[in-house]
Amino acid sequence: MLTSIQSPSKISLEEFLLLPETKPASEYFDGQIYQKDMPQGQHSTLQFEFPSVINRIGKPHKLAYAFPELRCSFGGRSIVPDIAVFEWPHIPLNSQGEIENRFELAPDWIIEILSPDQSSTRVINKILFCLKNQTKLGWLIDPEERLVIVFKPQQEPEIKENQDILPILDVLSNLQMSADDLFELLSFS
Predict the structure, then answer these.
(1) 183/164 Cα distance (integer angstroms)
(2) Contact 135, 164 (CB under 8 A)
(3) What is the pLDDT of residue 5?
(4) CA 173, CA 169: separation in Å to the nearest integer?
(5) Distance CA 34, CA 16 (A)
(6) Is 14 exposed, middle or buried (0-12, 13-18, 19+ CB in 10 A)?
(7) Cα separations (Å) of 13 from 8, 20, 29, 146?
(8) Can you tell me the mean pLDDT for 109-134?
(9) Which domain holds residue 101?
(10) pLDDT tens digits, residue range 27-48?
(11) Rounded to whole angstroms, how far apart are CA atoms 20 and 128?
């Protein structure tokens, strides 16, 4: 659940970006600041393990890269997706070819992971906002229900579970994973 941080008046995105970072991260939209919930065990595990899976395929071939908790500011909002995946040509680099600190664009793929007692409404709002701003794919992972809601631009959301194959960015076509495969990342036995 995101909690609103009360401020006496609405602030601009520029003013928000000058504020010190918070833990857990805060996000900005509609002139308000909202603080994300502290991740718990399953959320934290998926947020670490799944980007590793993506990056093992995406980085060596310069296809894509997955960033956990990366601030992305675009379209008048500043969000911190649980996982933001960028296709290689979209990753901002400086003149030395090193990654920039500021990402002022929408991720190509946004992945959000529900925590216990977290409302899905604001998370879905964030995914839909990204889709309206050039994001190609969105996932809402629900570890408790063991399902993934898949969002694509101008399409109805789809629920994937069990052996359903999860859609991935086209550039990562070598990565094939079912919902069961994704949730197997939680297993420590």
Answers:
(1) 12
(2) no
(3) 52
(4) 7
(5) 11
(6) exposed
(7) 16, 13, 8, 36
(8) 93
(9) 38-184
(10) 898 888 988 888 889 999 999 9
(11) 27
Q: Tell me, what CATH number does 106's domain have?
A: 3.90.1570.10
* SS3 (DSSP) at 175: coil
Residue 25 domain-assigned? no
Q: How would you classify the pairing of strands 83-87 and 64-68?
A: antiparallel
Query: In angstroms, what CA-CA distances link 20 with 23, 56, 83, 145?
Result: 10, 32, 21, 35
Domain count, the chain: 1
Mean pLDDT of 122-148: 97
| pLDDT tens-digit readout, 50-66 | 999 999 999 999 999 99
User: Does residue 161 come out as left (phi exceeding 0), alpha (psi in the -120 to 50 range) or beta?
Assistant: beta
Phi, psi (deg, nearest 5) at residue 42 = -65, -40
**64-117: pLDDT as tens digits:** 999 999 999 999 999 999 999 999 999 999 999 999 999 999 999 999 999 888
Does any domain span residue 68? Answer: yes
Q: Which residue has the tokens 């898949």?
A: 150
DSSP single-letter state for residue 138: E
Diameter over CA atoms, the chain: 50
Q: Which amino acid is at 10?
A: K
Note whether residue 69 is domain-resident: yes
Residue at 143: amino acid letter: P
